[in-house]
């Protein structure tokens, strides 16, 4: 049985390395991610163009901790708004746990 993914909107800066750690919880407790793999990608809303694959690491499985990251080269190519989700897989079961928008801002320093 799957549940709707939680929404978390991301804001980052172009031409800058980016990393965000999230802790996945169910019923207020961290989800044990031992044995899971995770996938995250940034797309257009209509899913016609993939902007990038996000490095997705289960950084602390027993605490439900996942780290998402992009290089400065990857963030430089992002449009103003893109969309993402995080899919977790264990064995033959896959579920989406997180989704949202990605806002890419311009910095002032060159």
Topology:
Elements: E1 6-7, E2 10-13, E3 18-23, E4 25-26, E5 29-30, E6 37-43, E7 50-60, E8 65-70, H1 72-76, E9 81-90, E10 93-105
Parallel strand pairs: 1-10, 2-10
Antiparallel strand pairs: 3-8, 4-5, 6-7, 6-9, 7-8, 9-10
Task: Please sum up the structure shown.
The protein contains 1 helix and 10 strands, in the order ββββββββαββ. It is mainly β. Strands 1, 2, 3, 6, 7, 8, 9 and 10 form an 8-stranded mixed sheet that branches.
What does this structure look like?
With 110 residues, this protein is mainly beta. The chain contains 1 helix and 10 strands; from the N terminus they run ββββββββαββ. The strands form 2 sheets. Strands 1, 2, 3, 6, 7, 8, 9 and 10 form an 8-stranded mixed sheet that branches. The protein has a two-stranded antiparallel sheet with strand order 4-5. The longest helix is centred in the C-terminal third of the chain and has 5 residues, at 72-76. The model has no long low-confidence stretch (mean pLDDT 94).
